[in-house]
User: What shape does this take?
Amino acid sequence: MKLKRYLLLVVFIISSSYLTGCLVGNKLSYKIVLESQNSGTAIIKYYYIRSDADTKDRLEEDKYLLYEYMAKSKQFVADMKKEGREIIDRKLYLDENGKLIAEGTYKFKSLNSVENLVYDNGYYFITLQLEDSVLSTNGQVIRTANYKRIIWDEGYKTLEFEILTEPAPDNYIDMARYYKNYY
Assistant: This one.
C-alpha cells in the first residue's frame, strides 16, 4: 500500500486535510489500548520515512511539515484535538540502522478518532485494502474478494497490528539525512 501523506498523518496522528504531497514509509504499526468500549490510547509508528520531492521547494516543504509542524508545533496538537485526538507524545528518532521513525501517542474518546476502527456486535475491526500486507496482529485476519479485515472480539483490551507498505522507489529522499539538522 502506498502511503500518501494521509497515512503519515495517521501514523503521526493527523488527518489528510493538512497535506498534499507525498511522504512514504515501509511499515506502519498500531497499538490501541482500550480503556472502555469506545475510548483509549493509540500508539502509532511509521518506519523509514522518505520524500518524493522533485524540487528543492517541495523538499523544504516536506522537511518543515515533518520536522517542525508535526514533530514540534503547538498548532499540530490543536489541530489534532479538533479531530478527537489528544496528543500525549510524539517523537522522531533514528533506529539502530539510521532509519527515521515517527511515533505518536494520543488519547481518544471515540473510536471514530482512530482510523477506520469500528466496534459492532461484540467485535472490533478495521478494514484494509486487499493489497495491504498484514505483517502481524493479535487479531484474526479475514480476506474477502473485496477487502481484508482484522477482527478482535470485545475481550481484547489491546489491539495490535503491523502493515507492510509498498517500498519507496530508490530515487525518493531518505528523510533521516536531515534529522541532525533538527535534533
Summary: Confidence is low (pLDDT under 50) at residues 1-20. The chain has four helices and 13 strands.
